[in-house]
């Protein structure tokens, strides 16, 4: 299948995970939830998101994306305004030289965003880390969940950014494990989790957010 046409006036939720294809949204006036994953979103570039969303961007209330961070491509364009989006869930494949701050453009386009969930899976990179500086205020974001936190430069930078720029932040949950890692007995992962919690506690104390930060 190379093309998927969606003409469903009563469709409320859509999930697609698979090979890269062309999706044509002909009529989806009630679409409120969208999940996109698999090879279709191997990289977060204009090739899939921008042609897809503008026709119903103002309708979405929940968006879930599987994505690989590619900051060089992601900073080249602006996302469509997602004016009604309340919940954003990002399942991110990141390398230890990337900056998660490139995700802030998507957060910034979500004007009514209340809840952000970020799940991180990591891969090693042997290239030099590129520094990225961003300053944006997010006025409606109240709850943040980060799974797969390791306490490195990349995820710590992102946490600090949210603490400083999410004006109404009420709660940030940090979990060293992803959903798939829960309940495992791997000694290496257990040691990594202990180190991540120590660093999360350090950040909590340094930035004075003990009342907001929940370490799982």
Automatic annotation (TrEMBL):
InterPro entries per UniProt: At1g61320/At1g61330-like, LRR_At1g61320_AtMIF1
Any one Pfam family match given in the protein's UniProt record, by short name: LRR_At1g61320_AtMIF1
Domain of life: Eukaryota
Occurrences of domain At1g61320/AtMIF1 LRR (ranges): 1-198
Protein name: At1g61320/AtMIF1 LRR domain-containing protein
């Amino acid at each position: 299948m190379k093309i998927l046409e969606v003409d469903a006036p009563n469709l409320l939720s859509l999930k697609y995970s698979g090979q890269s294809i062309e999706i044509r949204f002909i009529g989806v006036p009630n679409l409120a939830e969208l999940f996109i994953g698999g090879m279709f979103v191997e990289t977060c570039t204009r090739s899939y998101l921008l042609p897809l969303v503008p026709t119903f961007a103002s309708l979405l209330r929940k968006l879930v994306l599987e994505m690989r961070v590619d900051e060089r491509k992601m900073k080249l364009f602006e996302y469509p305004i997602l004016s009604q989006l309340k919940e954003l869930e990002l399942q991110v494949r990141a390398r230890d030289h990337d900056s998660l701050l490139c995700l802030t453009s998507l957060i910034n386009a979500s004007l009514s965003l209340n809840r952000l969930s970020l799940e991180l899976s990591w891969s090693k990179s042997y290239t030099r880390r590129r520094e990225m500086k961003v300053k944006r205020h997010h006025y409606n974001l109240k709850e943040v969940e980060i799974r797969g936190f390791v306490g490195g430069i990349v995820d710590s930078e992102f946490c600090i950014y949210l603490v400083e720029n999410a004006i109404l932040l009420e709660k940030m949950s940090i979990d060293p494990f992803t959903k798939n890692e829960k309940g495992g007995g791997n000694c290496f992962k257990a040691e990594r989790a202990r180190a991540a919690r120590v660093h999360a506690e350090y950040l909590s104390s340094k930035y004075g957010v003990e009342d907001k930060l929940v370490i799982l």
